[in-house]
Amino acid sequence: MKNLSELNYGIIGLGIMGGSIAKAIRTNILSDKSNGKIYAMDKNLESLYAATDSKIINKGFLPEDTKKMLSLCDFVFICLYPHATLDFLKNNSKNFKNDAIITDISGVKALLEKEYDSIKPQNADFIFGHPMAGGEKEGFSASKGEYFLNHNYILIPHSNNKPENLSLLRELITKMGFTKITETTSDDHDNKIGFTSQLCHVVASAMVESAENTEITSFGGGSFEDLTRIAMINAPLWTELFISNKEKLINHIENFKNQLSIMEELISKEDKENLTELLNDVRKKRIEMQKR
Amino acid sequence: MKNLSELNYGIIGLGIMGGSIAKAIRTNILSDKSNGKIYAMDKNLESLYAATDSKIINKGFLPEDTKKMLSLCDFVFICLYPHATLDFLKNNSKNFKNDAIITDISGVKALLEKEYDSIKPQNADFIFGHPMAGGEKEGFSASKGEYFLNHNYILIPHSNNKPENLSLLRELITKMGFTKITETTSDDHDNKIGFTSQLCHVVASAMVESAENTEITSFGGGSFEDLTRIAMINAPLWTELFISNKEKLINHIENFKNQLSIMEELISKEDKENLTELLNDVRKKRIEMQKR
User: Fold this and answer.
1) What is the spatial distance between Cα B55 and Cα B60, in angstroms, rounded to a whole number?
2) Chain A to chain B Cβ contacts (< 8 Å)
3) How far apart are CA A280 and CA B236, in angstroms?
4) Which of A90, A145, B56, B137 has a beta carbon 3.0–4.6 Å from A27's, enabling a disulfide?
5) B-contacting residues of A 186-225, CB under 8 Å?
6) What average pLDDT does the segment A113-120 reach?
7) Average pLDDT of the residues in B105-129
8) A224/B204 Cβ within 8 A
9) Å from A245 to nearest chain B CA?
10) Residue B273: closest CA among chain A residues belongs to which residue?
């Protein structure tokens, strides 16, 4: 089996996610003296300079030098928006190093799944992935190597993925700090992420929209603040995610609105008994989730 | 003007809020050697013992000794549920020490406002208040003196409140760690708290209810967890708060559902331009709130 510290890593897109992956690899896998190197491609020269100056990456590449960089990389993390990930794979299917392992971080998988045959690199192994970490910050300057500690990772293996490559990716992910790796299908991923991530962003955004003004936070005690932190949202990215997963997301919004209406009716009817019972169930369910 | 360290404080109900108030007074206002004392009334003997053993309070009283305790207290914090607060005031209107300052922490004020004339103590000054701090924990064991650092406090002065008493309460609140004190009316309080606090608890609860099962958190990246932490809810308390403020709360739920529907339609129509614009507005509004 390959030794992670002997490999060269390529990061496509050095934003908060790509930057954090590079830092986690530098901290946990590659020392200055390792044979393996970290390369990154980004259109933002400033990020590339910051990452080389701080010795997070060994060398930065601009988009026009992508082919050159890919020829060096045994492990490639594509850290782009969903449609850009699709385009990148289409444009570079023949540019990967022989036997390289390619993975992505896209928050919606249907796009990639639909075009799987046309994006599958012929001489490399593309394993769909999704590190479940995010925040309201953006860019390389917001990235950090400890970002992934105790977070979840989702892998979507395909029948043609080599078992040894999947094992190596799992080893790498674990060393980066992720504690729980779940394997599933693209369809199940999109459905569950539509709930845990996308619906939450819709809800937080709708909550901020329904605030009468920004002064309302003088009346805040933490609930509103915690609930809406994710509404400091990256608008173009989330527009793309919401629309790319619209059927599943709308289904979740409808279910959620139904639950709201059930509570609303109990409140309206002053049905103390059933409202208390419902809230007790909610409490138990949420505490059970906390334990996981 | 009275000196805060010379006064005796009475805490009615030594749960997480009453306990935190006692601890904040002990840490920031009364040393072991101060003339002023802290007394607490609770039906839970264990909490009273824990608070006396740790020298947070000087003496504990059971409900049957309330009258005795009140006769000693210059400052009384009623830390009970809304209806219990109302009952306590009705039953003890003649038991307060002369010129005492009485305040409450009730999350809904209409109940008290409606019966103001019947609950107003004749020889003491009752000032409506609401410390804006809360959490998913309960009981004296969860209380802490630093609980209020950088939190908001709402005061609802009435025309008969003495200005010097209001000033003294503001001084006390500030020393306890609260950084922003806002004065308003009961009606405005209930409307705004209906949004920042109650609507958030309804939304978090509905979100947990709409989760297909507790295993969904394997797919969580933090958003769902942050948004639903407050769903580890104290069911009887929040049932009472929701129903006591039902008209304003239902109005907020309706507004929120409308905002959800607006977003849902943009997603459904794949209206990227307007969805991105809306999310950009949300982001700006939320960042503006963060600055406050």
Assistant:
1) 11
2) 304
3) 8
4) A145
5) 189, 192-193, 195-197, 199-212, 214-225
6) 94
7) 95
8) no
9) 9
10) A239
Rounded CA gap, A106 and A43, in Å?
19
Q: What ipTM was reported for this prediction?
A: 0.93
Q: Does the beta-carbon distance from A208 to B285 stay under 8 Å?
A: yes
Which residue of A185, A219, A259, A273 to mutate against B (max B Cβ within 10 Å)?
A219
Tokens matching residue B125: 């000054």
> Helix B246-268 vs helix B200-209: angle between axes, to the nearest 10 degrees?
60
- Look at residue A68 in the predicted model and tell me its pLDDT: 98
In this prediction, residues A214-241 reach a mean pLDDT of: 93
For the stretch A249-285, pLDDT in tens is 999 999 999 999 999 999 999 999 999 999 999 999 9
Span A167-174, mean pLDDT?
97
List residues bridging with B131 in a β-sheet. B153
Q: What is the C-alpha separation between A285 and B231, in angstroms, rounded? A: 9
Q: How confident is the model at residue B122 (pLDDT cuts 50, 70, 90)?
A: confident
- Ramachandran sector of residue B155 (left: φ over 0; alpha: ψ -120 to 50; beta: rest): beta
Residues of chain B with Cβ-Cβ distance to A240 below 8 Å are 272
**Cβ contact A232:B283 at 8 Å:** yes
Distance CA A165, CA A162 (A): 5
Q: Are B259 and B266 in contact, with CB atoms under 8 Å apart?
A: no
Q: What is the 8-class DSSP label of residue A204?
A: H
Q: Residue A203 and residue B263: Cα distance in Å, rounded? A: 10
